[in-house]
TrEMBL record:
It comes from the Bacteria. This is ATP-binding cassette domain-containing protein. The keyword Nucleotide-binding applies. Gene3D superfamilies: CBS-domain, P-loop containing nucleotide triphosphate hydrolases. The lineage of its organism: Bacteria, Bacillati, Actinomycetota, Actinomycetes, Mycobacteriales. Residues 377-400 are annotated as: Disordered. Keywords: ATP-binding, Nucleotide-binding, Transport. Residues 390-400 have a biased composition (Basic and acidic residues). Residues 11-248 form the ABC transporter domain. One of its GO terms (molecular function) is ATP binding. Belongs to the ABC transporter superfamily.
């Protein structure tokens, strides 16, 4: 992410220990950790290893028993915790919104405490709702209970970013939503991060999620012991300990698919059309491009339907088809997400959008399969003795 603007700050945990009263063993024995400004770091590890305890010591929702915590150059170990928390965004599972406050009131909570003017809060709220993919006109006055879990979670992210904190902490943020919503929220977080460049620390139970979101992944074992702290590809290529190997285990092949993003592969251009356009002209455009389908987009270029030319030929103009099961992923989605989305929609392809949902192209299952085959071949040639491979080939030739 060399071209990314960074507004986050570094975080350092220096000899941090947490002993809970009445517990014999410390939850976190002694942790030294450096998180670089602008990185997303994902904490993973088995239940009870100390992920949440470590996360909450960063904003001192849990007070460390020993050690120091630095945010940028600021030693915050003894800082007033309320003040500290105003400079650290915090997102929990299910959003943690105040249920009887409107979305706008929830998002403006910290700015109000900070004494911002009404106009500034309103402007910021509008910007943030747009950023997290919620139309301010539709949602600003809604109550959380009238929104889906995924939408509430988006509001939770907007609220955490309200005072533009350099650091965002997220505790299992996408744990409570269905798998497809989860993928959308992950993609949305990645596009927000592309725009903002915060330092984000997140706890997850899901190694796939950690490899998708994390610039670096921290794998902990009991007592907050660091087993490995590295980029996802380093962890997959060189697990540091037998613990890591086992933890990553059979998920490794799938995780490799997680390392490839849709934007890294050659997906196709598509022919788009707006509602009301002349169907014959659109069809001619599609045929010229060698396609027997088109994508209908709305006024902002977002996909609405994916009809075949036969379907659009039934009417003189492009009508407003709505396709509720349209398989869509974003460029920052992983190939794994793309495959899931194809399977869920029983289609041999997915539409690809940018971070704001604007149409970019289509990815076909053949392309994904080609990437998987190329990767498998690469792993073979890395791992296996050349003599073994030629042996295999001989064997096949004999058999055929
Ligand atoms: N308030 C508390 N009082 C006493 N012990 C606690 C408290 N909170 C956590 N612990 C203990 O500290 C250890 C680490 O807990 P923590 O919640 O940080 O783990 P975790 O890795 O986040 O677990 P999970 O994945 O299950 O959420 C566990 O043994 C837990 O039982």
């Amino acid at each position: 992410m060399a071209d990314q603007r960074i507004t986050g700050t570094s975080i350092r945990l220096d000899g941090v220990v947490k002993r809970y009263r009445g517990q014999e063993k410390p939850a976190v024995e002694r942790l030294d950790l450096d998180i670089e400004a602008g990185d997303i770091v994902a904490f993973v590890g088995p239940s009870g290893c100390g992920k949440t305890t470590t996360l909450k010591m960063i904003n001192r929702l849990i007070e460390p028993t020993e050690g120091r915590i630095l945010i940028g150059d600021r030693d915050v170990t003894d800082e007033n915790p309320d003040r500290l928390r105003q400079s650290i965004g915090y997102v929990i599972q299910s959003g943690g919104l105040f249920p009887h406050w409107s979305v706008a009131k929830n998002v403006g909570a910290i700015p109000r405490v900070l004494g911002w003017s009404r106009a500034k809060i309103a402007e910021r709220t509008e910007y943030l709702l747009e950023l997290v993919g919620l139309d301010p006109g539709t949602y600003a006055d809604r109550l959380p209970r009238d929104m889906s879990g995924g939408q509430q979670q988006r509001v939770g992210v907007a609220r955490a970013l309200a005072a533009d904190p350099p650091v965002l902490l997220m505790d299992e943020p996408f744990g409570a939503v269905d798998p497809l919503t989860r993928v959308r929220l992950q993609d949305s977080l990645l596009s927000i991060q592309q725009e903002l460049g915060k330092t984000i620390v997140l706890v997850t139970h899901d190694f796939q999620e950690a490899t998708k979101l994390g610039d670096k992944v921290l794998i902990l074992s009991e007592g907050g012991r660091i087993e490995q702290y590295a980029t996802p590809s380093e962890i997959l290529a060189n697990p540091a300990t037998p613990f890591v190997e086992e933890f990553v285990g059979s998920g490794a092949t799938l995780a490799q698919l997680t390392l490839t993003r849709v934007r890294d592969v050659d997906y196709e251009q598509v022919v788009t059309a707006s509602v009301g356009e002349n169907a014959e002209e659109v069809a001619a455009r599609a045929r010229a491009a060698g396609h027997d389908w088109i994508v209908v987009v709305d006024g902002r270029g977002r996909p609405r339907a994916w009809p075949t030319l036969a379907e659009i030929a039934t009417k003189p103009q492009i009508s407003d088809y709505i396709d509720a099961r349209l398989p869509v992923v974003s460029e920052s989605s992983t190939l794994n997400d793309a495959l899931d989305s194809m399977l869920a929609a029983s289609q041999g392809g997915v539409l690809v959008t940018d971070g704001r949902g604007v149409m970019r192209g289509a990815l076909r299952i053949d392309t994904v399969m080609a990437v998987i085959r190329a990767h498998t071949a690469e792993v073979r040639s890395d791992d296996e003795e050349p003599s073994y491979i030629s042996h295999e080939e001989d064997h096949h030739q004999e058999g055929s």
